[in-house]
Amino acid sequence: MSLFLVATPIGNLEDLTKRAEIILKTADLILCEDTRHSRILLEKYGISQPVFPYYDFNKEKVTLKIVEWLKEGKEIALVTDSGTPGISDPAFYLVREAIKADIDIVPVPGPCSAVAALVASGLPTDRFCFEGFLPGKKGRKKRLEKLIEEERTIIFFEAPHRINRTLKDIQNILGDRRITIARELTKIHEEFIRGKISEVLDKFTVKGEMVLVVEGKIK
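User: That's the sequence. What structure does it adopt?
Assistant: Structure tokens below.
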């Protein structure tokens, strides 16, 4: 009885590892954040295992049921919409409950957009922190203020319609720092926008999900 945390491509479907493919083809069940989205990948690789939705809004309702399936001996694979499960998605909730039930947790490494953006950013990679998505409104300023003294490179996720607002907030609170915006990672229109916030702010129109890498405080 094992729960496999299977990393899947963040854009280019060719990035699925051979090990991930084998596990998805042999699992008794595949948990998907969005079954419609995941079927595109599964169909490409001829994977016909049954799927079951597992997302933020049903996690509390179905987690105990999934743990029971695992205790019965089922081998279950968990995938997110893209990248590594557990990074800004509900996988953590299931992993925690599975550990309590003595279920084996097996990570199957692969693509991770935060790391991909970091290593191509040109900013220091030896020490970094990941902040996920900033709050929409309430708590945003407070979260950023806690990062004023942060010397490590800081990584955020951000949506296109909020990127300019986020850049302005970072500039106002953290200062005019060097940044890299990584958008459409591994896709045809992959792009990296680098420079100080003042140099890129309001000078571009971006589409697609993106990762924002921000310079830490200079000593």
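Residues 59-71 form the longest helix (13 residues).
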